[in-house]
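Record Transcriptional regulator, IclR family, 302 aa.
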Amino acid sequence: MTPKEDDTNGEDDGARPEAGRDKPRRKAPQGSQTVDKAMGLLKLIAAAPAEGLRLMDLAEQSGLDRATAYRLVSSLSNHNFVDQDTLSKRYTLGLEFFALASAASNRHDLSQRAREALERLAEATGDTATYCLRSGLDLICLDVETGDFPIRTLPMDIGSRKPVGSGATGIALLAALPDFEVDQVLERSAARLSKTPGQTPEAIREQVRLARALGYALAPDEPQGRIMGLALALTARNDRPIGALSLNGIPERFAPDRVPGLAALLREEADRLADRLNRLPDSERHRTRWAGERTPRPRNGS
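=>
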């Protein structure tokens, strides 16, 4: 995600001139522009590979000159939002970023509820259970629990990002959006999504149609297809998708006779999570809804 993409967020900011008037758009205050640029750099670092980004990478991807990028990233480093490796000089997310993310998750009572759900899913299936939340055009992995199946898979590291529309979780989230928003996401994320072979907008739209028909998304969760994912989108009280819950494993773990039962387990955990969260006071509630019909439970290891 580039800072330019994130600044718009696909929404009308209401600053258009009125009919019949030549009303200029007001410029954002200088201070807010600085914050926008710093947040853009932070999001670039969050979306980067585990080894991080160099200063020249940050400048190139953000469109900032190197002096400005250095000044901003140094400020983020001073506040422990990013770290710089002393040898490689690459920037990665700092501890303060994760502390705030954890505080935000706990604020909505999501962290512990999701952890319990992942533990039950991993124990019941033997597969890897993953919990992601949406942030703009990205999905952020907040928690992962691996099962006891001998061949373990890890589709995402905790704290890592991927574009909405990528993998099973991304398809599940797109399937919960109206078509016009699906088109917007695919247009704005086209360059990132196209890095995965075969992930054209047309192919993704077909996956979305299939996910809507089935009530769940089943798709490869890495380019070579060595990890498969089965996912459902988690939506808030206003039916807006806020994240996804998934099960991941080698392709053989998702045989046709096993998939319906896995989907049923995901839905069961979603219902339980929704019920517990909906008992919270209005100020703390984050109500959820999961799509799909109930089907028989799978046997572990089948």
